[in-house]
Amino acid sequence: MIKSEQAHKAVQNKIVNREKQRLFEKDYLHMMRLLSCQLALKLARENHIK
Q: How confident is the model at residue 2, as a pLDDT?
């Protein structure tokens, strides 16, 4: 009985960790896109000024 409860908890933890990882990756990709957009705008402005 106790072993099956521990196994169930372990599975739940794995699922939770996977979700956290997925959300982190999504946020990370979003941040990288924003940063690359900002960088592109900055470079475009600098090139325009020259």
A: 80
